[in-house]
Design a protein that fits this description.
Layout lengths: L10 E3 L5 E5 L6 E2 L2 E2 L6 E5 L13 E8 L5 E2 L2 E2 L6 E6 L4 E3 L2 E4 L8
Antiparallel strand pairs: 1-11, 2-5, 3-4, 5-6, 6-9, 7-8, 9-10
Length: about 110
């Protein structure tokens, strides 16, 4: 896996259009003035409109990252890049699909 490293201003959405908002675990390493995203960061999703057939709301509320950047770490913790794999989950932790990374910083790439 490789790609541009993610930071808190990256645009990440759930498959249904909800916006992911990271809560960075570290604030020492910055990219363009914004904290670098780490594998252990908490990602909340807001604004997901997904509803099951029958009318039960089942919005994405979190992202659980499965595969971090393979070679870049900050303080011993893996970071995230465009090639990182995650799963959007409902409040019941039901998998809802992969998050979509559409905008990232263009200056720093992971290996």
């Amino acid at each position: 896996m490789s790609g541009n490293l993610l930071h808190t201003q990256a645009t990440i959405t759930c498959p249904h259009g909800g916006r992911a908002n990271p809560v960075p675990a570290q604030s020492r390493v910055l990219l363009g003035g914004d904290p670098l995203d780490g594998f252990s960061d908490v990602y909340t999703v807001t604004g997901c409109p997904f509803t099951l057939p029958g009318g039960k709301p089942q919005p994405c509320v979190t992202i659980r990252w499965v595969t971090p950047s393979s070679r870049v770490a900050v303080g011993g913790a893996p970071t995230l890049d465009q090639g990182s794999v995650g799963i959007c989950q409902s409040v019941e932790q039901i998998p809802q699909g992969a998050p979509l990374v559409s905008t990232v910083q263009q200056r720093v790439r992971g290996l």
